[in-house]
Automatic annotation (TrEMBL):
Pfam families given in the database record: E217_Gp32
Organism: Gluconobacter cerevisiae
Name recorded for this polypeptide: Phage tail protein
Top-level taxon of origin: Bacteria
InterPro entries referenced in this protein's UniProt entry, alphabetically: Gp32-like
Amino acid sequence: MAGNFITSANGIMTLTIASLFDAPITLQNWGSDRAWEQEAVEMLESQMSIDGVLNRGYIPRPVNQTLTFSAASPSIVYLEAIWTAQQSTMTAISLGAELTIPSTKRKYTFTNGAMMTGSVAPNGGTVLEARAFTFQWEKVFPAGI
């Protein structure tokens, strides 16, 4: 019997940092409880007129995304490089990304992004804790694979 598979374990995300690296970086060793998550985007605003007519309009909004990595992730080096470059140049480093999820046969392209927040070091506990970084994207384009 065939089933529906929704694993995120085989998801692949690449990050493009053209100003720092010649090729896209494949992100690895994600956090165990949550790898990536996107906030819901409010796409419309509405107003009710005094005579009871509901009016709506599209308003473009950025997409906020959090990526979480194991403290031992090799991807941390690249994320720290973005952080360091932004600190030293005092400017945003422009990013792009692509998330491919084979289990759902979907791909998402993230454009005109920047790292907005980041964990400066892993928190120490019984073991080192995962590190989270947030990104803001201008647009996200879904597609089939």
